[in-house]
Model the fold of this input.
Amino acid sequence: MTAWLLASGDFVPLGGMDTANHALASFLARRVNGPVHLVAHRVSPELAGLPQIRVHRVPRPFGLHSLGEPLLTTVASRHARAVRDSGGRVIANGGNLDGRDVTWVHYVHAAYQPSAVGPLNAALVAARHRRYLAAERRALTQAQLVVCNSDRTVQDVVTRIGVDPQRVRRVYYGIDATRFHDRNEPGSAKVAIGRDPSVPLVLFVGALGDRRKGFDTVYAAWNAMCRRSQWDAHLLVAGAGAELDRWRVLADLDGMSARMTFLGYRTDIPSLMAAADLMVHPARYEAYGLAAHEAICCGVPTIVSAAAGVAERFPADLADLLLDDCESAAELCTRFRRWRAAPEELRVRTRAFGAQLRTRSWDDMSREIVDMSAS
Done:
């Protein structure tokens, strides 16, 4: 009987690395003969209730990540030693834990220098980044195996951190095809979320705490497009963060509040994707880009940065959706116009790509990671 320990902030099926962590933990709980220890701030109730799962919950004092992360590392280190001493395996996310076993990389801090608006917010972001860099380097250089979510991430881990390529493997994410599937025609889905079915919807999903996800580029391009009388689309913005209120105020000042809706943090992303005619994701840095992957699985054409990890999976006939310069509002405007000129053609191509992506499940991904870790 082999024990496993996974250390990460959250194990919940609500997007990004949290969904991937939740999927791996669920797979282990269902497929391995031994306890599965989860050291985390938050674990979904259905996962915590599985017989094999042992939750070691770590608080986030005052709800702050900056205070919770050191506590998680301390608790995870203690339990990791016990699991290793019993012959078990440890899988940690990035710099959360120097587990000296398997490190699963969803994001490379050495690959991107974050920036934020406002002196206090900028100072906090910079300080957090320095701490992450140090922890990341310690964990990755001492790991026996480094699992990455894309070829782009593999390259960053090897060239920016100096990890031996022989210790690095790439494992793409999977998908829950029951939640993210092709809805064919988005009209009824628009009605379900209270939108006019005749108005084209463009969806942005991403945190608004800094500029990494590129919403500033989206905003500038949208402002320009709305000056064209023939532009008839509406923008939905799903995401929260320190800059959300600033964007709301700016939209009011620019007379854009009727052309975009800020939804804040949402847990109903599949419903929003079902209603969308296009998704836009011009991130400055994206190790993978699960939200783009999910949208494509729903048959939604997605404009995404060419440098994002998920972009390396795009087929040649969807190259028009890849944004070469994520800083360029003008290029994004060009992509918007191309989409609006032939929306059905792009949707047909995207549906074919989505069908291909849906053949790879979260269990397929998890099985690869477990097989690599156990060998």
In short: The radius of gyration is 21 Å. The chain has a mean pLDDT of 94.
